[in-house]
Amino acid sequence: MPAQRVDQAIEAIRASGSRVTVDRRAVVEALDRSGDHLTAEQLAEAVWVRHPDINLATVYRTLELLERLEIAFHVHLGHGPSRWHLAGDVHHHLVCEICNRVVEIPDSTFDPLRKRLLDDTGFVIDPHHFSLSGTCAACAADADR
Amino acid sequence: MPAQRVDQAIEAIRASGSRVTVDRRAVVEALDRSGDHLTAEQLAEAVWVRHPDINLATVYRTLELLERLEIAFHVHLGHGPSRWHLAGDVHHHLVCEICNRVVEIPDSTFDPLRKRLLDDTGFVIDPHHFSLSGTCAACAADADR
DNA sequence: TTCCGTGCAAACAATTTGCAATAGA
DNA sequence: TCTATTGCAAATTGTTTGCACGGAA
User: pLDDT digits over A121-138, tens only?
Assistant: First the structure.
């Protein structure tokens, strides 16, 4: 039932007092259709498949709204533009600084670190917003040679 | 002996076959003088105190060189421009997404996570390049109210 | 009808680049 | 001398904004 996330998002927009427009629905649907990790530009291209006249600025403004409503979020995967995704299953990213490969890891991997930092500093980490960088297995092996 | 880091950096530039220029020395000295977490713009201002005619583009080009030589590195602390620092004691940053406070934590905090990710995925993390975001103790307490 | 949302073009911030002049080795 | 480095201004990239028009409620 893929339409469910879209309907929930639309409902949240309405509930917030913002207007439900064709453009906003189109952005949410494109986000829903197109997995994780899209840049605003890529998302716009996905939107344009069905709605070629929606402006890039509108895509940015809609993403801003969706983030305020906690319907969508952006992540920084290494350098370059932000990546966007609908709220949903939380996972994290390791980005290889050599080959740019992205490895996804479950949120629970951070639990021990989370507890430790909370105990030590009172800081509640949300590691979702930024990726961790480093060297992937393949590139690390290459470097050893 | 604060000049030591500068001398080492200059020597590394020479050893790499690049030329040791007044501008490059000025950038290294400004970096050495001015603690961590400087943006390129702030670094340029520090340079201009003694060398008002050095161009911002030269600062950027020098930083690029220093990073290639592993003399200096940049870090992403939340949104906004990159922050630069000389190589040296490695530590990490927690950035509060509400108040932008920065909490520094020692590298060793990451050891268990590092080991786990290495075992699970073969990925060697270098958590230095990106900060972790979240909510600091004070803001978390405010949010509870 | 009343504002909110949108298109458009221009502004913006951070960074990079092409090219001619200059200065290290 | 010879070529790497620099200044300058312009280009780039990703994103935001002002304003007049058009469409949800």
Answer: 999 999 999 999 999 999
